[in-house]
Amino acid sequence: MRFSFLILAALAAGCQTHPAQETTATPAPPARQAPAAALRETHWVPRELAGQPVRLPADTREPYLTLRTDGTAEGNGSCNRFRGSFFSEKADELTFSPLISTRMSCAAIETENAFTRALAQSRTYRISGDTLRLFDAANAPVARLEAVYLH
């Protein structure tokens, strides 16, 4: 009988119930969105022009745009450097004066022409994180640029 009691006691100890564990999944922390890049003094690189991804031939320069705090717009279209003025009187407004540029040709001249055309058509903009989107007068997208941070 003592032997049976020990077996029952051992079985009872092994079958102890534990408090019910939570079955609800712990919510994931909210995704952290990068703060919006500044419109001015940021190195903006076009990634899409007129709805098409920017593709550059080998051995060509990456185009970029920098909007300076003094109202100067400057950059490189891939073949040529350009410079002009930009205007942003309202919170979402962005227009450019005609840009002055050198006139050398290169394998990426079509990309350069699409880039400068998008800047000329720009009337408004939106920044979300590291992305700058330019829109024309009809609010159609003309360019998507990405902030690239230089070291």
UniProtKB/TrEMBL annotation:
The keyword Signal is annotated on this UniProt entry: yes
Pfam families per UniProt: META
Domain DUF306: 37-145
Annotated signal sequence range: 1-20
Keyword Signal: yes
Keywords, in A-Z order: Signal
Superkingdom of the organism of origin: Bacteria
Record-linked Gene3D superfamilies: 2.40.128.270
InterPro entries: DUF306_Meta_HslJ, HslJ-like_sf, Hsp_HslJ-like
Name of this chain's protein: META domain-containing protein
Organism field: Hymenobacter monticola
